[in-house]
């Protein structure tokens, strides 16, 4: 179990960091221009969604919190720290709960219980990405309105949230399978093999 | 009587099985206390950061993370640039010289615009005289590239530059492009600097109309909406701004955060604000904020490193 969870942790750390770099350095060159700056797919958010789909809700919530915190304090962020942390945490929790309460594979004998990772169908992944994107962008925008961190009006926020949602669903086609593959691979490799361990010790 | 006692004795075992089945249904569900703790942590962080203002305790953390992430961003950006930048794809490290030439041209262009901005001849002569007296009162520029751009979903307009405190940059320095004012530096790490663009809705720049030296404040309107990105409110309520007039910065004390005389844009539309009995001018910025790449940071003359001095010479 411990080998599996460290593999999982490493996979998520790598995925979040790569997603952050792609999101701020590479994607702005291909951004969808809505007024001022471009809207880019929220890759970090999609990694959190994929984590929620593949692992348990608890892990997804924690991943969301820490990934959001990284997004909050890594340059070029200049907004109040904690806003993306709250938003992505909510994404991890809500997506995790919805998927896990409705999927039939939470019993003790399921594949999920045995291997710790599951492969959700594509439709579910896209729906989760759309929902997650909407929740994440909304929570982030609402905290900004509450704390007066951003002066944008709700009428301005909606088109951005919608464009972001469309882009996120498109990006989810790539990001979610990639993250799932990474999680699947690291957790499988991370499993300690009892026979080898015994041989080494004796 | 018997019917009365049955329901409670029936209910109790149902509850018990429900409680015992609960953990089996979703073993990985987080405890409610964990969720509450994380929500409170986020909220506390926001409040601490907000209350801290300029001396927020989050800033050192930001800086440390920036030191780690910044160089990686610069690396990724350097790798990706040739791919996304196909028109200028033949950019190698040796073509830095070309970049510098381009910046020199930009610098000349900038001062040209300055001269054309409607400052009357007398002022110009005065300025030239002052420049002669002060030796180099003109601004030295440190060239830098934009390596990361904040997404529109953040609803704030910030970019990251690939130069930081190692190159002599510090917060509250002016950032310009060939076409005019870009913004000011809000924070630096050793190798990167975060710039708040003037179109951000928290940005406020002291500006003046070049032709008649009238003062006012240029405020950003957020990153959203293609029109009305910048607007200016004049201090003198009787002056009516005219369409096409040039707006330049009026400058802050000690040139920080904004130096004087940098073009901001031109007056695009004029509204009369009845409530405040003053005029509001919508400014068309000279800089295309969606296509920022090479920018210059105004540094004190004599800063070490590759700096373009005001007379156009490179050191």
UniProtKB/TrEMBL annotation, chain A:
Q: Specify whether Glycosyltransferase is a keyword of the entry.
A: no
Q: How is this protein situated with respect to the membrane? A: Multi-pass membrane protein
Membrane-crossing ranges are: 9-28, 34-54, 121-147, 159-183
UniProt subcellular location: Cell membrane
Which source organism does the UniProt entry give? Nocardioides daeguensis
Which NCBIfam families does this entry report, sorted A to Z?
shape_MreD (TIGR03426)
Key word Hydrolase present: no
Q: What is the lineage of its organism?
A: Bacteria, Bacillati, Actinomycetota, Actinomycetes, Propionibacteriales
Q: Report the sequence similarity comment from the record.
A: Belongs to the MreD family.
Q: What is its main location?
A: membrane
The protein in question is named Rod shape-determining protein MreD
* Superkingdom of origin: Bacteria
Which keywords does the record carry? Cell membrane, Cell shape, Membrane, Transmembrane, Transmembrane helix
Spell out the InterPro entries in the cross-references.
Answer: Cell_shape_determining_MreD
UniProtKB/TrEMBL annotation, chain B:
Protein species of origin? Nocardioides daeguensis
Q: What does this protein do?
A: Involved in formation and maintenance of cell shape.
Alphabetically list the UniProt keywords. Cell shape, Coiled coil
All residue ranges annotated as the Rod shape-determining protein MreC beta-barrel core domain in the record: 153-298
List each coiled-coil range.
93-120
Concerning Pfam families, the annotation shows: MreC
Q: Where is the composition biased (Basic and acidic residues)?
A: 19-28
**Protein's recorded name:** Cell shape-determining protein MreC
Q: Which InterPro entries match?
A: MreC (IPR007221), MreC_beta-barrel_core (IPR055342)
Task: State the similarity comment.
Answer: Belongs to the MreC family.
Region Disordered: what ranges? Answer: 1-28
């Amino acid at each position: 179990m411990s080998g599996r969870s460290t593999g999982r942790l490493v996979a998520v750390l790598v995925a979040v960091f790569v997603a952050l770099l792609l999101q701020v350095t590479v994607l702005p060159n291909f951004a969808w221009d809505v007024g001022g700056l471009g809207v880019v797919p929220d890759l970090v958010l999609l990694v959190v969604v994929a984590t929620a789909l593949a692992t348990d809700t608890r892990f997804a919530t924690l991943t969301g919190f820490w990934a959001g915190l990284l997004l909050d304090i890594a340059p070029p962020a200049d907004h109040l720290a904690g806003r993306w942390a709250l938003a992505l945490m909510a994404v991890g929790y809500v997506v995790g709960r919805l998927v896990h309460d409705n999927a039939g594979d939470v019993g003790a004998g399921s594949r999920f219980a045995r291997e710790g990772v599951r492969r959700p169908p594509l439709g579910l992944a896209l729906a989760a990405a759309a929902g997650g994107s909407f929740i994440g962008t909304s929570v982030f925008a609402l905290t900004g309105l509450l704390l007066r961190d951003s002066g944008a009006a709700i009428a301005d926020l909606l088109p951005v949230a919608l464009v972001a949602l469309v882009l996120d669903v498109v990006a989810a086609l790539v990001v979610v399978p990639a993250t799932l593959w990474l999680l699947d691979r690291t957790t499988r490799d991370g499993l300690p093999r009892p026979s080898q361990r015994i041989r080494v010790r004796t | 009587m018997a019917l009365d006692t049955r329901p409670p004795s029936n209910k109790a075992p149902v509850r018990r099985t429900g409680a015992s089945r609960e953990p089996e249904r979703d073993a990985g569900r987080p405890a409610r206390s964990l969720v509450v703790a994380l929500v409170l942590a986020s909220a506390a962080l926001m409040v601490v950061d907000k209350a801290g203002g300029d001396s927020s305790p989050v800033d050192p953390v930001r800086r440390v993370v920036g030191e780690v992430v910044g160089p990686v961003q610069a690396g990724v950006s350097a790798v990706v640039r040739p791919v996304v930048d196909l028109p200028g794809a033949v950019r190698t490290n040796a073509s830095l010289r070309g970049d510098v030439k381009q910046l020199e041209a930009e610098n000349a262009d900038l001062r040209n615009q300055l001269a054309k901005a409607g400052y009357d001849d007398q002022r110009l002569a005065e300025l030239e005289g002052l420049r002669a007296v002060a030796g180099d009162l003109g601004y030295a520029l440190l060239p830098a590239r934009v390596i990361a751009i904040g997404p529109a979903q953040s609803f704030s307009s910030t970019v990251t530059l690939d130069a930081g405190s190692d190159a002599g940059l510090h917060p509250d320095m002016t950032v310009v492009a060939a076409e005019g004012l870009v913004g000011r530096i809000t924070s630096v790490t050793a190798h990167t600097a975060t710039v708040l663009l003037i179109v951000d809705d928290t940005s406020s720049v002291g500006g003046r109309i070049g032709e008649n030296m009238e003062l006012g404040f240029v405020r950003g309107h957020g990153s959203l909406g293609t029109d009305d990105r910048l607007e200016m409110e004049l201090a003198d309520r009787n002056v009516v701004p005219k369409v096409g007039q040039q707006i330049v910065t009026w400058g802050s004390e000690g040139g920080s955060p904004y130096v004087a005389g940098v073009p901001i844009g031109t007056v695009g539309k004029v509204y009369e604000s009845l409530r405040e009995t003053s005029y509001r001018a919508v400014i068309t910025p000279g800089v295309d904020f969606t296509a920022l790449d090479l920018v210059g940071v105004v540094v004190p003359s004599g800063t070490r490193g590759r700096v373009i001095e005001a007379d156009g010479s490179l050191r």
